[in-house]
UniProtKB/TrEMBL annotation, chain A:
PANTHER family in alphabetical order: NADH DEHYDROGENASE UBIQUINONE IRON-SULFUR PROTEIN 8, MITOCHONDRIAL (PTHR10849)
Protein name according to UniProt: NADH-quinone oxidoreductase subunit I
UniProt membrane topology term: Peripheral membrane protein
Location of the protein in the cell: Cell membrane
Enzyme class: translocase
Primary location group: membrane
Residue ranges annotated for the 4Fe-4S ferredoxin-type domain, each copy included: 39-68, 79-108
A Gene Ontology molecular function term of the record: iron ion binding
Gene from which this protein is expressed: nuoI
Organism of this sequence: Candidatus Desulfosporosinus infrequens
UniProtKB/TrEMBL annotation, chain B:
Family: Belongs to the complex I subunit 1 family.
Annotated gene: nuoH
Transmembrane segments: 37-60, 106-129, 141-162, 183-205, 211-230, 261-283, 295-315, 327-349
Name of a matching Pfam family: NADHdh
GO cellular component: plasma membrane
Reactions this protein catalyses: a quinone + NADH + 5 H(+)(in) = a quinol + NAD(+) + 4 H(+)(out)
Protein name: NADH-quinone oxidoreductase subunit H
Keywords: Cell membrane, Membrane, NAD, Oxidoreductase, Quinone, Translocase, Transmembrane, Transmembrane helix, Ubiquinone
Length: 134, 355
């Protein structure tokens, strides 16, 4: 029949019209991320042994950490842990190489900032803000 | 007034009763001054209809566009985004009004005003209910088509006045397309005129008391809707403002409120074409007495408008040679065939009924 395609098309769009929306209302409704998503980093300070392997493994030199030797226990204690997230790939190599699993890849994703300086993450402060410091 | 005893009848004649009351305020209800006052009130009502139609339809268009692509459409301002058009209108008013340096200034400025004025003139002859035509014109259909044909001139004025090659191309496309589709549009209405023996839209609606003309003239209705969509320059016939080909056609150089007037005019014209289709083919304000006449009328107009939007968001744009082919080689012969069959039908009917 002439014009059959037109009617089929109208039928398809009508089905779409009365069917459900596939839109995700993002700010009100948080998305369910796939389990492999790598979008942020987290540090557990008490697990860290300041071995510097994460800084060595990083392909972009993102991680800078300093440590101090504790005189009584003769162990290194983490003093500062800086990440220049602007250069971070979230490749996860640092977390992969960490011997105590102190550094982990997390799935927080609302990471945008207003100032370039805000991309220098102080991981210890971030961990304190999350209430994860022991 | 005995009509007050029946609430539905009162509601049906609500506007007539109000008009009667306003006329009653004058010493002589049929004096010149009373007529002038009623004319001004009618004019204001038609303007309100055009502006309201644009406000509602712009949002509805975006909603339909969203629904067809499984989105919710605008959903930020107001309940479910229903106040979005108000924000858009305010934004348009706040924009800078630019006239290009090389433009033909008078023609450039007058074109959007003409486009905006036309739907007000055409909507004035539509009967919105029993005896509710703002102007009860004997040559209603004729006047309607003659006035709506002027928009062609406005498009070429906008295209020429902008002094921009895309605008001129769009304007020339508008002339080619709208002149071509005027003919099937006109011929499709001729069948109805032959049956009713009248150009008066009120008489045509009265004649559909028992059976709406869409059942007697299905072919004419299809031709009218297709030609009407082309006349409105809406997708799939939006070659005039085809963004991918001629930027925005005649509207390229317009900004702010002038562009807004074009938009108002487009949606006003859409209302007018749908109103004529509802009046001529779907029985206008006639309908079962469960609802008042003007509600039936707007319901039918709404259905046609929804269909036009639905078609717009379904079909891709037609090619310009296919467009001309469709008008001259398909729609025109079909509409002439329709006239011929209608004449034959009327002849046979008279023969059988002994008229």
């Amino acid at each position: 029949m002439f014009g059959k395609g037109l009617l089929t098309g109208l039928g398809i769009t009508f089905k779409r019209m009365v069917g459900p929306n596939i839109t995700e209302f993002y700010p009100e409704q948080k998305p369910n991320l796939p389990i492999r998503v790598r979008s942020s980093m987290g540090l557990e300070r008490e697990k860290c042994i300041s071995c510097n392997m994460c800084a060595m493994a990083c392909p972009n030199g993102v991680i800078k950490l300093t440590s101090e030797k504790d005189e009584t226990t003769n162990k290194k204690v983490l003093k500062s842990y800086q990440m220049d997230v602007g250069r971070c790939l979230f490749c996860g190599m640092c977390a992969e190489v960490c011997p105590t699993k102190a550094l982990t890849v997390t799935q927080e994703y609302e990471n945008s900032v207003f100032e370039p300086g805000d991309m220098q993450w102080d991981m210890i402060k971030r961990a304190e803000r999350k209430g994860k410091v022991g | 007034m005995e009509t007050l005893s029946k609430p539905m009848e009162t509601f049906d004649n609500l506007f007539l009763i109000i008009a009667h009351f306003i006329r009653g305020l004058f010493a002589d209800p049929q004096s010149v001054w009373a007529n002038l006052t009623m004319s001004i009130i009618n004019f204001i009502i038609v303007v309100v209809i055009v502006v309201l139609a644009a406000l509602i339809l712009i949002l509805l268009e975006r909603k339909v566009a969203g629904w067809t692509s499984q989105r919710p459409g605008p959903n930020r301002l107001g309940p479910r985004g229903w106040f979005q058009t108000i924000a858009d209108a305010l934004k348009l008013m706040g924009k800078e009004d630019i006239t290009p340096a090389g433009a033909d200034k008078f023609i450039f400025k007058v074109a959007p005003m003409i486009i905006f004025a036309l739907p007000m003139m055409t909507l004035a002859v539509i009967p919105y209910g029993n005896g509710l035509a703002p102007i009860n014109l004997d040559l209603g259909i004729f006047y309607f088509l003659a006035i709506s044909a002027i928009s062609t001139v406005a498009f070429i004025m906008a295209g020429w006045g902008s002094n921009n090659k895309y605008s001129l191309l769009g304007g020339m496309r508008a002339v080619a397309q709208m002149i071509s589709y005027e003919i099937p549009l006109l011929f499709s209405l001729l069948g109805v005129v032959m049956i009713t023996q009248s150009f008066n839209l009120g008489v045509i609606v009265e004649a559909q008391k028992n059976i709406p003309f869409i059942l007697l003239q299905p072919l004419a209705f299809v031709i009218y809707i297709i030609a009407g969509m082309a006349e409105l320059n809406r997708a799939p016939f939006d070659l005039v403002e085809a963004d991918q080909e001629v930027v925005a056609g005649p509207f390229t150089e317009y900004s702010g409120l002038r562009w807004g007037l074009f938009f108002l005019g487009e949606y006003g014209n859409m209302t007018a074409v749908s109103a004529l289709a509802a009046t001529v083919f779907l029985g206008g304000w006639q309908g079962p007495a469960i609802l008042p006449g003007f509600v039936w009328f707007w319901l039918k107009v709404g259905i046609i408008i929804f269909f036009i939007m639905w078609a717009r968001w379904t079909f891709p744009r037609i090619r310009i040679d296919h467009l001309m082919h469709l008008a001259w080689k398909v729609l025109l012969p079909l509409s002439i065939l329709n006239i011929f069959l209608t004449g034959l039908g009327i002849y046979i009917y008279r023969l059988v009924m002994g008229g």
